Amino acid sequence: MPLHLIREDITKMKTDAVVNAANNTLLGGGGVDGAIHAAAGPKLLKECRKLGGCETGRAKITKGYDMPCKYIIHTVGPVWQGGGYGEEGLLCSCYSNSLKLAEENGCESVAFPLISSGVYGYPKKQALEIATKAITAFLESSDMTVYLVIFDKRAIEVTSSVYGEIEQRINDFYVEQRELEDRRYHRNAMYNAPLFDDAFAEAPIYQAQACAPLTEPEKEKKPKLPKIKKEKKKKPTDYDIHTGPAGNQEMLYEAAPAAGMAFELDESFSEMLLRKIDEKGITDAECYKKANVDRRLFSKIRSNAQYKPSKQTAIAFAIALELPEREIDEMLRKAGYALSGSVLFDVIIKACIEKGEYNIFKINEILFEYDQQILC
Questions:
Q1: In which band, very low, low, confident or very high, does the pLDDT at 214 lie, cut at 50, 70 and 90?
Q2: CA within 13 Å, CB half, 247
Q3: What is the mean pLDDT of the segment spanning 154-170?
């Protein structure tokens, strides 16, 4: 865990394995297949010739050669024929068989393209739903990190059922931002307008002051003050310190040790998180997997009551717990954050919460669509 949706050239992914959307011959082709063969070099084709092809839905593994990954896993996706020829099952098998092969070879990270969504014609929205479903099902029992690599964001379609309503909220945000920019522009234009010579009249000068001779004012003599003898300070004795005036008592206060002072802290983010997990009656693993967070990060949070997570991590846990908006705000405050109506990322998160969209992966699709950082 977790699953990351990123925009990148898959041939440059520095993961343990990269998955190639190949054809049945495994001898190279167009699109992702051609790009991977070009990046890996001629030795890849030489090894692929020995594999004897691959059936649709199956997967085979080779070395990474000139690519930054250790392995290349080749899988053959189905050609879309209307959905009535077992395409969904075959596409799901592409992901599950590739992940099993990666696990068998000790891979901790894998990068996938969106299989069959190119020249094989699989509808992009359905291809993304199947990829997400197959990968998350595998990750329920694995700590592998998986990347779903999208070269162009136009290659995906957001699958959230409430996307239309959230999209309207985002459009309202853009309108408000535009209006705010217009107001700032007009205000700045007013303050930066040029001033002309006759814009302001000179202040009148009283005639008497104008005609008065310029003479230096007589210096005022300072009165002499009587000298006061300074009293020599005596070092305080133990008796003076304990029984003397308040001035001596201050020495006691200044010297008093602060070690005995106790500060009572409010419940921390980590403490609230663990309390809410117990209240929901779920396991730690169920929570951090649903939050799209890996086990190592969760262990850090659990072992440190004062751990300060990133904003994305804090939001991911709040959403995974399906907290109401008020409790999400409380959990974020404990981590030192808040959701703002003037930040697009925050507007999207707030809209998803209000519409009851608590699926991290569907929220990430929307964030990805608007070029925002995804959750964990």
A1: low
A2: 3
A3: 69
Which residues does 123 contact at the CB level (< 8 Å), separation at least 6? 80, 117
pLDDT digits (tens, 9 = 90+) for 108-121: 999 999 999 999 99
Residue 6 CA to residue 1 CA, distance in Å, equals 15
CATH superfamily ID and name for 3-155: Leucine Aminopeptidase, subunit E, domain 1 (3.40.220.10)
Contacts of residue 57, Cβ cutoff 8 Å, sequence gap at least 6: 75, 76, 78, 89, 90, 91, 93, 94, 97
Distance CA 45, CA 37 (A): 7
Q: Is the pLDDT of residue 198 over 70?
A: no
The closest alpha carbon to 291, from 317, 315, 268, belongs to: 317
**194/373: higher pLDDT:** 373
Which sign does the torsion angle of CA 29, 35, 40, 41 carry?
positive
* Non-local CB neighbours of 49 within 8 Å, separated by 6+ positions: 27
CA angle 153, 102, 100 (to 5 degrees): 100
pLDDT at residue 223, as a whole number:
57
| CA separation for the pair 178, 374 (Å, rounded) | 25
Residue pair 114/131 in contact (Cβ under 8 Å)? The answer is: yes
Q: How confident is the model at residue 225 (pLDDT cuts 50, 70, 90)?
A: low
pLDDT above 70: residue 242:
no
d(CA 296, CA 334): 21
Residue ranges per domain, the chain?
Answer: 3-155, 269-369
> What DSSP state is assigned to residue 12?
G
